[in-house]
Amino acid sequence: QVQLVESGGGLVQAGGSLRLSCAASGRIFSFNSMGWYRQAPGKQRELVAAITTFGSTNYSDSVKGRFTISRDNAKNTLYLQMNSLKPEDTAVYYCNWKTSQMLTSWYDYWGQGTQVTVSS
User: Fold this and answer.
1) 3-state secondary structure 2-21
2) How many C-beta neighbours within 10 Å does residue 96 have?
3) What is the pLDDT along the chain (120 residues), one digit of tens a residue?
4) φ, ψ of residue 87 in degrees (nearest 5)
């Protein structure tokens, strides 16, 4: 089992910044793929950004150039730096952590979610 604890959400004005953190603990294997998802009211959960143990990243088009995903492998912590926030970024943000020992079976875990609200 892996436990994920998210922090850093809150209320910010448009154009402002927030930094989300996701601290993982428990049975974490050598190969990991981590990501941030978000879900706005009435909408499906969507991928915001993802990163692997090896550092490769991908972003949704809506956040490219504004958000940066990073990780600290030694601390098993995932981050999402969000700049130039827009009202449409308002959502509950979820940390997702996939871990694998041998790149065959993957174990998938979700954080509890943290609210990000951007006022106009």
Assistant:
1) EEEEEECCEEEECCCCEEEE
2) 19
3) 999 999 999 999 999 999 999 999 999 998 999 999 999 999 999 999 999 988 899 999 999 999 999 999 899 999 999 999 999 999 999 999 999 988 888 999 999 999 999 999
4) -55, -30
Side-chain half-sphere CA neighbours of 84 within 13 A: 7
**DSSP annotation of 59:** E
Range list of H helices, 40-108: none
DSSP string, 15-82: T--EEEEEEEEES--SEEEEEEEEE-TTS--EEEEEEETT--EEE-TTTTTTEEEEEETTTTEEEEEE
How crowded is residue 92: how many other Cβ atoms within 10 Å of its Cβ?
A: 18
| Pairing mode of beta strands 67-72, 10-13 | unpaired
